[in-house]
C-alpha cells in the first residue's frame, strides 16, 4: 500500500505539535516562540504589543514557556511592501513557532496569503469582503444535540479576529444622526497597495444605502487626503487610521469640524470622545482582542487547526454622539435617534450658569415676578396706611379767587358788589378726636400687617415651588439616564437573542419580542426627556429667566450641611418613636410661631377687635374738631367805594373766623347696635377660623414629618432592593445566555431591576421634596438661616426635649 506524501507545511506543523505533546507528557514546559508584526512604529502599536505580551503570558504561562524575543518583534513602515517583508522574514524564521499581526495592515497581509507554513494569527481584519480575506460559514456541534453557525477562515494555519463592524448598519445609524447622500470613506493608504480593488469593494459594500461613496486613502498628509474628497461631500466615514499619531487624530477632527462635515468612527467611542461626531460601537478594546488571540493560540497549541477557529468578534452596540461637535457643525440629531444615544458633552460649555438647590431657593425669593408684584401690593398698602393717618393730622389749605362784572350791573347793585373783586385766604382744620377715623387708621395698620404676611406666604410658596421644580429636574435627569441604560440593556439582549437563534437555542419570536421591547423603551426615554425639559422650563419661570435658557443642575443630597432640619443632621431626635413624637411637637410649636397663615388671621382678628371697640365707643364718644380761616380781598371799579347815598356800612378788606365743633349721634334707627352686634359676631367667627387654621397647621406639619421620616428610611431600603434586583438580573441574564431560562424570566428580571433602580433614584428626591415641604409647613427654609439661627434652632430643640423630660444621645 502506497503512503500519500504530506505537504512540507503539514509535515512541519505535525512535527511541531508532536514535540509539544511529548514535552507536555514529560512534564516540561514547551518553549513557544512568537513572532509579532506591527504595522509601524507608534505609541498606539507599542500599546498593542504591551497588552498582547501581558495577556499571552497570563493565559499561557502556566502551560508553556512563552517567548516573544525582541528581535522577533518587527515593525513595518505602514506600507504593503514593508509589512510583506516583515511577514516573510518571520514565516521563514525557523526559531519562530507562531506569527501574530496586531495591526490591520499586517493582518491583511497574513489573511491574503495562500501558503502559510506555520500557524498565523491576525488580530485585526477590518472587513473580509472588502479586503479579500477568506471567510466561510460552518455549523459546529455544541453539548447535547445543539449546533451553532460560526464564521471561520477555512484556510489551514490562518486564524484572525474581525473588527466586528457592519457597514450597512453603521451607515443607517449615521444617516439617522446626520442625513447625507454623498459619503467619503477614509481608510489607510497601506491597504490600497495590498488590495488594488479596495475602492470598488468599498463602493460595493456601502452602496446599498443609496448614497454615493467616494473612498479616499489617507497617507502622510491629512490635507492631501481631504483635498481628494469631492467638494460636495456631505459626510465622512473614518475607518481605523492606526498610522496617525494623537496629534494627527486631533488635527483630523479639527479639519472636519472646520469644513462642517459630519463624521463617523468605525473604531469606536474613543474617537468620538476625541471629537468625531458619531459611532455605533464602544471603545476599541485592545485588551479583548489580545485575549481572543491568546485563546486562539492556546487552542492551536492544544491541537486545533487555526483555520477552524471562529473569527467573529461580536461588539455590542454602544451608540454615541459628541454633542459639542454636533453644535460646532450645525447638526441636530432627531428626537427618535437621541432616545438611545449616549450624548457626550451634552451640555454646552457656555451654558451660562450652574444652579444648586440652595441657589434656586435663595434666588426665587428675589426675582420671581409674582413676588415682585406682591411687594408692590405691600408698598401700595403703606400708602393706604398713610392716607388713613392723614385724617388725624392738621389740614391746611390756601385759595384765591377773582371776579368781574359789567359796569351797568355794578351800578344797579348800588355798591353791594364791586365791578372787580379779588380775594386770597387760608383755612386750617384739625380733628381733635374721632373714634371712627382713629379706628380706621388702626384697622388699616392691621390690614397692612395682613398684606405683609400674605406676601410672606407667597414667598414661601414660591420658594417651595422653585425647590420642587429644581428637584424635579434632578429627578427627571436621573430617570432619563436609567431609561437610557435600560434601553442599552435591551439592545444587548436583542443581540444575545440573535446569537441564540443562530445556534438554535431560540426562535425568531424572541428577536421580535426584544425588538418590541426596544420600541417601548425608546418611548420611555422620549417621555423622560420631555419631562426633564418641562422641569427645566418650570425652574426658569420661577426664577424669572428665559424659559428655554439652559443651566447645569448640581446634584443635591440629604447630607447638605445647610439643611439643619435634615434627618441626617437631627438623627438623635427622630431615631425612636418616642423621640420622634417629641420632635413633631417641637416642629409644630415652631410652625405656630412662624406660620404666615396664622399671622394673617391674627392681623384680621386685631382689626376686627378694633372695629368692635369703635362700635362700642360710638354710643358715648363724640367727634370733636377745630377749624379756622382768614381772607383778604380787594375791590376795584364801580362799586368799590362806599356810596354816601346808602346807609350801608362798608366792611374792611380782612375777614377771619374760628370754629370748634363736637357731635354725638343719639339715634340712627338702630344702626349703632347692629354695627356692634355684627362686629361681635365677626370677631367670634375669626376666632374660630384662627383655631381651625392652627389645627390645620398642626396637622400639616405632623403629617408631613411622618412622610419625611418614611422617605428617609426608604432611601436605604430602596437601594437594597435595587442591589438585589441587579444581582438577580445578572444571574438570570447568564442563565438566559446559557439557555437555562426563557425570555419571560429575563424580561421580568429586567423590568424588576428597572423599577427598583427608579425607586432607588426617586427615594432621595422624594425625601428632599418632602423635607422642603416640611420646611414650608414650619414657615422657615433652612437655606435662609444664618449660622447663629441654626445654632439657636438646635438650642431650642434641646430645651424642648429637656422640658418634655425626654433625653437624647449627644449629637
Task: Give a short summary of the structure.
With 811 residues, this protein is of the alpha/beta class. Helix content is 55%, strand content 15%. Helix 18 runs antiparallel to helix 21.
What does this structure look like?
The structure is a single chain. This protein has 811 residues and is of the alpha/beta class. Among the domains are: 8-161, Rossmann fold; 190-195 and 209-280 and 316-344, Rossmann fold (3-Layer(aba) Sandwich). The longest helix has 68 residues, at 435-502. It is elongated and about 155 Å long. The N and C termini lie far apart (98 Å).
Measured on Cα atoms, how large is the radius of gyration?
46 Å
* CATH architecture call of the domain at 8-161: 3-Layer(aba) Sandwich
Portion of residues within helices: 40-55%
The total count of strands amounts to 21
The CATH homologous superfamily of the domain at 8-161: Response regulator
Summed up, the helix count is 24
Amino acid at each position: 500500500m502506497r503512503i500519500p506524501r504530506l505537504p512540507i507545511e503539514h509535515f512541519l506543523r505535525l512535527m511541531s505539535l508532536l514535540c509539544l505533546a511529548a514535552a507536555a507528557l514529560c512534564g516540561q514546559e514547551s518553549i513557544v516562540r512568537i513572532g509579532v508584526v506591527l504595522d509601524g512604529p507608534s505609541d498606539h502599536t507599542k500599546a498593542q504589543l504591551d497588552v498582547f505580551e501581558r495577556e499571552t503570558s497570563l493565559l499561557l504561562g502556566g502551560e508553556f514557556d512563552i517567548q516573544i524575543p525582541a528581535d522577533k518583534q518587527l515593525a513595518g513602515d505602514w506600507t504593503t511592501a514593508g509589512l510583506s517583508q516583515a511577514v516573510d522574514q518571520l514565516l521563514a524564521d525557523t526559531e519562530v513557532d507562531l506569527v501574530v499581526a496586531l495591526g490591520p495592515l499586517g493582518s491583511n497581509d497574513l489573511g491574503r496569503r495562500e501558503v502559510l507554513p506555520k500557524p498565523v494569527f491576525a488580530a485585526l481584519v477590518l472587513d473580509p469582503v472588502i479586503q479579500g480575506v477568506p471567510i466561510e460559514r460552518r455549523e459546529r456541534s455544541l453539548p447535547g444535540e445543539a449546533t451553532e453557525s460560526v464564521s471561520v477562515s477555512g484556510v489551514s494555519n490562518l486564524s484572525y479576529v474581525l473588527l466586528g463592524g457592519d457597514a450597512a448598519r453603521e451607515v443607517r445609524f449615521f444617516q439617522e444622526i446626520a442625513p447625507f447622500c454623498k459619503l467619503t470613506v477614509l481608510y489607510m493608504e497601506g491597504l490600497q497597495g495590498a488590495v488594488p480593488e479596495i475602492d470598488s469593494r468599498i463602493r460595493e459594500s456601502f452602496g446599498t444605502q443609496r448614497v454615493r461613496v467616494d473612498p479616499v486613502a489617507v497617507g502622510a498628509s491629512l490635507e492631501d487626503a481631504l483635498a481628494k474628497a469631492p467638494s460636495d461631500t456631505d459626510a465622512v466615514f473614518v475607518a481605523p487610521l492606526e498610522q496617525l499619531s494623537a496629534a494627527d487624530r486631533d488635527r483630523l477632527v479639527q479639519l472636519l469640524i472646520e469644513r462642517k462635515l459630519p463624521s463617523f468612527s468605525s473604531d469606536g467611542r474613543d474617537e468620538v470622545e476625541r471629537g468625531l461626531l458619531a459611532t455605533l460601537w464602544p471603545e476599541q478594546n485592545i485588551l479583548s482582542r489580545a485575549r481572543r488571540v491568546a485563546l486562539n493560540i492556546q487552542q492551536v497549541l492544544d491541537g486545533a487547526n487555526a483555520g477552524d477557529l471562529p473569527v467573529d468578534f461580536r461588539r455590542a452596540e454602544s451608540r454615541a454622539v459628541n454633542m459639542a461637535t454636533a453644535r460646532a457643525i450645525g447638526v441636530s440629531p432627531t428626537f427618535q435617534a437621541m432616545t438611545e444615544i449616549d450624548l457626550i458633552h451634552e451640555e454646552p460649555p457656555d451654558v451660562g450658569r450652574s444652579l444648586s438647590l440652595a441657589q434656586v431657593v435663595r434666588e426665587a425669593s428675589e426675582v420671581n415676578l409674582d413676588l415682585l408684584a406682591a411687594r408692590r401690593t405691600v408698598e401700595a398698602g403703606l400708602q393706604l396706611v398713610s392716607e388713613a393717618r392723614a385724617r388725624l393730622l392738621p389740614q391746611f389749605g390756601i385759595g384765591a379767587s377773582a371776579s368781574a362784572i359789567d359796569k351797568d350791573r355794578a351800578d344797579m347793585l348800588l355798591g353791594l358788589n364791586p365791578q372787580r373783586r379779588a380775594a386770597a385766604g387760608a383755612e386750617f382744620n384739625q380733628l381733635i378726636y374721632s373714634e371712627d377715623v382713629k379706628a380706621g387708621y388702626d384697622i388699616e395698620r392691621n390690614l397692612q400687617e395682613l398684606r405683609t404676611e400674605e406676601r410672606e406666604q407667597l414667598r414661601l410658596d414660591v420658594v417651595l415651588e422653585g425647590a420642587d421644580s429644581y428637584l424635579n429636574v434632578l429627578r427627571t435627569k436621573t430617570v432619563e439616564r436609567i431609561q437610557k441604560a435600560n434601553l442599552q440593556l435591551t439592545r444587548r439582549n436583542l443581540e444575545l437573542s440573535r446569537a441564540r437563534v443562530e445556534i438554535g437555542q431560540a426562535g425568531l419570536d424572541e428577536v421580535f419580542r426584544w425588538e418590541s421591547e426596544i420600541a417601548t423603551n425608546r418611548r420611555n426615554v422620549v417621555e423622560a426627556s420631555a419631562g426633564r425639559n418641562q422641569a427645566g422650563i418650570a425652574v426658569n419661570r420661577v426664577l424669572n429667566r428665559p424659559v428655554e435658557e439652559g443651566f447645569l443642575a448640581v446634584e443635591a443630597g440629604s447630607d447638605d450641611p445647610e439643611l439643619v432640619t435634615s434627618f441626617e443632621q437631627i438623627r438623635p431626635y427622630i431615631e425612636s418613636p418616642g423621640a420622634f413624637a417629641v420632635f413633631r411637637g417641637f416642629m409644630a410649636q415652631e410652625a405656630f410661631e412662624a406660620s404666615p397663615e396664622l399671622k394673617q388671621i391674627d392681623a384680621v382678628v386685631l382689626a376686627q377687635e378694633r372695629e368692635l371697640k369703635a362700635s362700642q365707643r360710638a354710643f358715648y364718644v363724640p367727634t370733636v374738631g377745630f377749624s379756622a380761616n382768614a381772607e383778604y380781598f380787594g375791590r376795584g371799579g364801580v362799586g368799590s367805594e362806599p356810596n354816601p347815598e346808602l346807609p350801608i356800612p362798608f366792611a374792611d378788606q380782612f375777614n377771619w373766623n374760628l370754629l370748634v365743633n363736637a357731635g354725638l349721634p343719639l339715634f340712627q334707627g338702630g344702626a349703632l347696635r347692629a354695627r356692634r352686634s355684627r362686629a361681635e359676631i365677626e370677631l367670634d367667627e375669626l376666632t374660630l377660623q384662627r383655631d381651625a387654621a392652627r389645627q390645620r397647621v398642626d396637622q400639616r406639619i405632623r403629617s408631613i414629618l411622618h412622610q419625611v421620616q418614611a422617605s428617609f428610611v426608604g432611601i436605604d431600603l430602596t437601594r437594597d432592593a435595587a442591589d438585589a434586583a441587579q444581582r438577580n438580573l445578572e444571574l438570570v441574564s447568564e442563565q438566559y445566555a446559557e439557555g437555562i431560562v426563557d425570555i419571560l424570566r429575563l424580561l421580568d428580571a429586567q423590568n424588576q431591576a428597572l423599577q427598583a433602580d427608579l425607586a432607588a433614584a426617586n427615594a432621595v428626591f422624594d425625601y428632599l421634596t418632602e423635607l422642603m415641604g416640611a420646611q414650608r409647613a414650619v414657615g422657615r427654609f433652612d437655606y435662609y438661616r444664618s449660622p447663629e439661627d441654626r445654632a439657636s434652632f438646635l438650642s431650642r430643640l434641646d430645651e424642648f426635649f429637656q422640658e418634655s423630660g425626654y433625653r437624647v444621645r449627644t449629637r
